[in-house]
Amino acid sequence: MQDLPPKKPHRTPGRAAGYDPAVRFDRFQNEAIDDGWGRADELPVLRTEVRDERARTVITKNSSPDLSFDRSINPYRGCEHGCIYCFARPSHAFLGMSPGLDFETRLIARPNAGAQLARELSTPRYVPKIIAIGTNTDAYQPVEKKREIMRDVLQVLSDFNHPVGIVTKGTLIARDIDLLAPMAARGLVRIGVSITTLDPKIARLMEPRVPTPQARLKLVKTLTDAGIPVRIMVSPVVPALTDHELEAILLAGRDAGAVAASSIVLRLPREVAPLFRDWLETHFSDRAARIMGRVRELHGGRDYDPEFGKRMVGQGVWAELLQQRFRKAARKLGLDRSLPLLRTDLFCKPPQCGDQLNLF
Prior knowledge:
Elements: E1 49-52, E2 60-61, E3 71-73, E4 76-77, H1 101-105, E5 106-109, H2 113-121, E6 131-133, H3 144-147, H4 149-159, E7 164-168, H5 177-185, E8 189-194, H6 200-206, H7 213-225, E9 230-237, H8 246-256, E10 260-265, H9 272-283, H10 288-298, H11 317-333
Parallel strand pairs: 1-5, 3-6, 6-7, 7-8, 8-9, 9-10
Antiparallel strand pairs: 2-3, 4-5
């Protein structure tokens, strides 16, 4: 019999995870026990906490054959958006925190990210290639409104004429159009906006602190009207829950101004799988078995198959049918193309106080 999730010591309105799975690196585990003396409505509400980390490096390198970039930046660790399916949840365990509620509520900000990025870009050996932002946790999650760390990073990239690709669900990115639009005019930026479902009720349960699907579609129009190329991302596709919306999401994205599209199937690495199963039993118990059965069909009979080349597209007949649907719809809507390549030839270190002036 599968262990039941531990009881929660807090009320968790607006959170997707139902509990905190154990941190896999801890030698000792703590578990809250209900002694029967308190009532659920008397428990304190779980609030978001943010602590600062002084980043020693901000550019993270990768060699994954599944990715089109080899470097990325994450201004924050953890994500208050709290998407239950987020593949980045297990990364919180490396910080000694749980991939469950901790991932959504115990955030780490990197306030010196902009200054550190400027130092790294200034090294004589640095060779510019596109930097990806938002590929692990969302740089435009709610905490960014006050902290403005992503804006600092974006300002540095603009100053250096450095190319950047941003993926987000956060409408807060519209705040930075004054930086993004001139960068787009120089061929330095492209943006992906992720929409998983058009159903606001499912979205609120699955992505509790993300702007509504309609707000994200409005964001696509706002960005494209400013001359910024936008890709609509149907990610992830949740089988037997949101997969029927694939064509409708692509159409809505095209109508909002998106010029390209992509799609990734649901993947549930490590602690994400039990968190997602618990979420299904809580909110969609009538179809939980069907959904997980389809997920396992996509991943070779397991909750998740991490093999490169398969983890993002799935495998088997259903995965191939899904890819065929995506290709057909994208072609019909004119979204079956890549966004323009970003320029690296404009990269240069901006002049600093005390620099010798150029002769010409």
